[in-house]
Each structure stands twice: as C-alpha cells, then as structure tokens.
Amino acid sequence: MSLLSTAQILDAGLADWRKLPQALHARFLTRDFTTGLALVAAIGELAEDARHHPDVVLTYPHVDVKLLSHDAGGVTERDVDLARSISELAAGRGINADPGAPTVVELALDTAEAQTIGPFWAALLTGDAGAVDGDDVVDPSGRVPLLWFQHTDHHETPRQRFHLDLWVPHDVADTRIAAAVSAGGRIVDDAEAPSFTVLADAEGNRACVCTILDR
C-alpha cells in the first residue's frame, strides 16, 4: 500500500492518534490493569481480523498503541483504518485517549565518520554490529531509542556531538517548548519550526523538539 502524506494523515481526523517519526501513536487511559488487559485482548481480535498487528504496551494506568505498515516503511490507509477501529472499540468501553501523551526520543550523533563508527554503536546499543540501516542504528526489539548520524565535516574544535530529538504531537510542541524555556532554557534556532526547534539549557547543551509538520 502507498504511504500517506502528513496532510492525508491529519485530514483523516484521527482525534485519538498522533503521527510521530514513522508511526501512529495513541494512549488509552484504562486506569486499572484489568480494564487495560481486556482492551489489549480486544485490540488483538481486531488485529487478527484485519491481518495487521500493532505494537501494544500494557501498563497499570494506560495502554499505548503504535501502528506502522512495516512492509511499506510508514503509515498507510491500513493503519488509519485500524486506528479508527481501535478508537471506536475504546470509546465503546468508556475508555478515553490522551492524544498529547505520545512521545518518541531519538539520539543524534554529529559525525563525519558514520560508516566507520556505525557498527560500534550498533554493537554497543543492540549487541549486533550489523544493526545499521543507512544512517540509523535500529533495534527491532525496541529496547533502546533509535540513534541516527547527523553528517558533518571533520572538525577539531570541541563541541557537542550528541543531542536528543524529542518527537511530540504537533499540537503539543509549543507548550513543551514554552515549558522548557520557563525552566531556564532558551531557543537557539526556530528557523525550521514547526518541523523542529533547537533549544539549549543554561550550559548550552542542545536538544530538538520535533513534529511531523512541514516534512
């Protein structure tokens, strides 16, 4: 199936769901373990019927669901259809979603030697030196965040080499940025906003707040 654009995903009107780097994410506030377990079982039945299986994480107060068409490498109409079905299922059980909650953290490493150092970081993070896909170190089991290599020229001057990319729902980004600034941070560069905004703490350590908009 064809990948959907950001505009198509937003136009789909999935009130419970937010698109982060590659997938659709939702958090359902089940409040207790028994309700969450029952919701997971019901989602499993939907997934079997659709022959399309999400990633589901059950915790005491909520259930997190991630939808991605792995064969297409992103979000397709198949994911949108299952997302709607899961939302209808949750609503029918009186379970609300928290669309502002989904968050994904990625690590970025500034380097001119991605091919040389990639196997090292793959082995360190995942135990498999071959767990490199292009400029990314990936862990299919989801134990560690994705690490991507930001290409740069060779340089001798010391500077920050790692930074965090914090992916948040597009309608949460401004609030999160304002909170970080109020807590002592500053905006370093917002020229690419709302795609990403570069922030720094009081010591100059940087992070990017990222959304799917303008990508």
From TrEMBL:
<dbReference type="InterPro" id="IPR041581">
    <property type="entry name" value="Glyoxalase_6"/>
</dbReference>
<feature type="domain" description="Glyoxalase-like">
    <location>
        <begin position="107"/>
        <end position="210"/>
    </location>
</feature>
<keyword id="KW-0456">Lyase</keyword>
<dbReference type="InterPro" id="IPR029068">
    <property type="entry name" value="Glyas_Bleomycin-R_OHBP_Dase"/>
</dbReference>
<dbReference type="InterPro" id="IPR001533">
    <property type="entry name" value="Pterin_deHydtase"/>
</dbReference>
<dbReference type="GO" id="GO:0006729">
    <property type="term" value="P:tetrahydrobiopterin biosynthetic process"/>
</dbReference>
<dbReference type="InterPro" id="IPR036428">
    <property type="entry name" value="PCD_sf"/>
</dbReference>
<protein>
    <recommendedName>
        <fullName>Putative pterin-4-alpha-carbinolamine dehydratase</fullName>
        <ecNumber>4.2.1.96</ecNumber>
    </recommendedName>
</protein>
<dbReference type="Pfam" id="PF01329">
    <property type="entry name" value="Pterin_4a"/>
</dbReference>
<dbReference type="GO" id="GO:0008124">
    <property type="term" value="F:4-alpha-hydroxytetrahydrobiopterin dehydratase activity"/>
</dbReference>
<dbReference type="Pfam" id="PF18029">
    <property type="entry name" value="Glyoxalase_6"/>
</dbReference>
<comment type="similarity">
    <text>Belongs to the pterin-4-alpha-carbinolamine dehydratase family.</text>
</comment>
